[in-house]
Write a structure and sequence with these properties.
Distance between the termini: 28 Å
CATH superfamily: NAD(P)-binding Rossmann-like Domain
Strand order of the largest sheet: 1-2
Shape: globular
Oligomer: single chain
Order of helices and strands: HEHEHEEHHH
Helix content: 25-40%
Largest sheet: 2 strands, parallel
């Protein structure tokens, strides 16, 4: 999913550089080399997740994580995060405290209240009706 996310972002943004991070450093290196060559953009591996997050204006997460790894203290004000990996109720990428303080935009709010990162932040009992949000 990460290559598709980067390709899509490059249609609307022109970053000076792209940082790639993976718990498996070798996977990050392979991704960076392949996508750097394909896109003609500098894609470099980030050895430290927290430093990469702090240095980024745009962050895209697409993982299978079951516990958040992007914490409130890592993210600078104004940073855009596209959290696309948390696509079921057991997955989570973003610290609920960060979501509580952020402007959150969803594609399907009712679904986001039931699965993914948002549902971890709001807890049970969220009901979405016409014109309302969680």
């Amino acid at each position: 999913m990460a290559p598709a996310q980067l390709r899509a972002m490059l249609h609307v943004r022109s970053p000076q550089r792209v940082l790639a991070y993976d718990n498996d450093g070798e996977k990050a290196k392979v991704f960076a080399a392949a996508l750097g060559k394909e896109t003609g953009r500098p894609v470099v591996t980030a050895p430290d997740l927290a430093e990469a997050v702090r240095a980024s204006d745009v962050i895209v997460t697409c993982t299978t994580a079951q516990r958040y790894f992007i914490t409130r203290d890592m993210v600078r004000p104004g940073t855009f995060i596209a959290a696309v990996g948390a696509d079921n109720e057991n997955k989570q990428e973003i610290d609920p405290r960060l979501l509580a303080e952020a402007k959150v935009v969803t594609d399907l709010t009712e679904q986001a209240c039931v699965i993914g990162d948002l549902h971890h932040a709001i807890g049970p009992g969220c009901h979405v009706g016409a014109g309302s949000a969680c």
